[in-house]
Every structure is written in structure tokens, then in C-alpha cells.
Amino acid sequence: MAYGVKLRVWGDLALFTRPEMKVERVSYDVITPSAARGILEAIYWKPQMRWIIDRIHVLAPIRSTSVRRNEIKSRVPARSVEQARQSGTGSLALDITADRQQRASLLLRDVQYGIEAHVNVLDPREQNGTRLGRPEAKHLDSFRRRASRGQYFHHPYLGCREFPAHFELVDQFPAPPPEVSGERDFGYMLHDIEFVPDPHGRVVEAHRGNRLTAEPRFFRALSVNGVIEVPPLKSARA
Questions:
Q1: Using 50, 70 and 90 to split pLDDT, how confident is the model at 207?
Q2: Which of 211, 215, 219, 220 is nearest to 194 (CA)?
Q3: What whole-number distance in Å separates Cα of residue 31 and Cα of residue 232?
Q4: Do the beta carbons of residue 35 and residue 108 sit within 8 Å?
Q5: Confidence tier at 88 by pLDDT (50, 70, 90)
Q6: What pairs with residue 14 in β-bridges?
Q7: Dihedral angle sign, alpha carbons of residues 88, 91, 93, 94
Q8: Are 49 and 130 in contact (CB under 8 A)?
Q9: Contact assessment for residue 214 and residue 193, using Cβ atoms and an 8 Å cutoff
């Protein structure tokens, strides 16, 4: 795509959790579009735009490893946070010795991906374009400048914050390894979370007077020679 970016990301470990796994954390075989979008947003994001993932390139053989990690089994209730905010007092601490539990995780190791994406401008005031030509041009220019300098708002990560991602802005991706050549079906994968108006559902967000609820969207992840074409979010299945 002429008005898009290509970003190569890599890291030692990654965990893109499958939502159907209730207790133990098991990773998808490759990065999800929502995780790829999170990496781009960590480098550059504005409320007037949204990143759209076009393709995902698998640039390293798919390898996995299993580890056991200490996790906290509980969380601070939102009601307690609100009460403490209003009263100015209250304990929001968690005792890690009492709430600690061990869980097994199936991770990916030595991962490397290529992300192709473009910008969708949401603000109607920017639809007429800018001095750079197109309305999304200024956002892409800012992203390229920040990515080339290694700048980010918060450190990008590969699924979980304890697995940092390294990144590099490129013009072309390296050739995929022979292990991912041919056609491979990774099954249904989480595309992203879409917020839709649903007055009868569980409201998780309010935007401009609309009551929105979150709905997960899935798509069939088919890799052809290491390249996964990501369909538009609207065409993904709920």
C-alpha cells in the first residue's frame, strides 16, 4: 500500500493468549492483528486516527516453550477504587504472598514478524487533507519519524508487558524461512475487539452519548508463504 508502513518486530518471547483457554495461558502460533495494532499504537497514536492491519509476515520459524510463572489470582475491585477516590482514604493493596499462584504458559520463542498497516482517519475535520496531500499523511509521517529514531510512548511488547518487542522501520521484509513456506491454516484467530451500540448489553464504554458494548471478532488466519492477509474488521465473524 502506497500510504502505509512496514515495521519489523522481534523478541525473545511472546504470548498471544487464546481466549478459549480459561486457566492456563496458551499462545496463538503467530501474532494477532490486535497485538500488532498495540505495537504500532505504542510508537504513535492519536485519538483522531486508528491503525488498520493489512498483512502479517511470519519471518522466523514457529518455536514454542513452556514455563511456569507466579501470578496474582485476584485484582482490586473497581468499586473499592471509586470509594477510595471519593473519600480520599482506603487500602488498595494486594498481598502477593496470599494471592500468588503458579500457572503454566505455552509461549513462543525467538519470534520475528513483519507488520503492514495503514491509517484510518476518524476525525471528519481532517478528511479534506493536509499540506502533505492526504489526511493520513501527517500521521504516517510522524510515525515514520518516531519509529526511525526508536521513539515510543510506552515500550512495545509481544502480547504481555514482560515480553518487550524490538522494532525497525523497513522498506522491504526479509525472505521468510523455509519452515513457513507453502500454505498453512492457523484456524480462527482473534482479530480485534469492536465496540458497537447495544443498549441491552453490558456497557463497557460511553462515547458521545452512545452506550457501547465490546464484541470480539475472529477471522480465519491462512498463511501463504508466511504472509497472512488480514480482512477488514467489519467482515470478521463475531
A1: very low
A2: 215
A3: 17
A4: no
A5: confident
A6: 108
A7: negative
A8: no
A9: yes
Predicted confidence (pLDDT) per residue in 220-236, tens digit = 999 999 999 999 988 77
Question: Nearest CA to 91 among 100, 103, 106, 80?
Answer: 80
Domain CATH code at residue 200: 3.30.70.2660
Number of domains in the chain: 1
What DSSP letter does each residue of 26-80 carry, written as one string? EB-SS--HHHHHHHHHHH---TTEEEEEEEEEE-S--EEEEEEEEEE-----HHH
Q: Which residue has the cell 526479509?
A: 174
Query: Residue 237: inside a domain, yes or no?
Result: no
The boundaries of the domain holding residue 151 are 5-232
C-alpha cell, 50: 486508528
Write the DSSP symbol of residue 34.
H
> Is residue 35 a contact partner of residue 158, using CB atoms and an 8 Å limit?
yes
Q: Which pTM was predicted?
A: 0.83
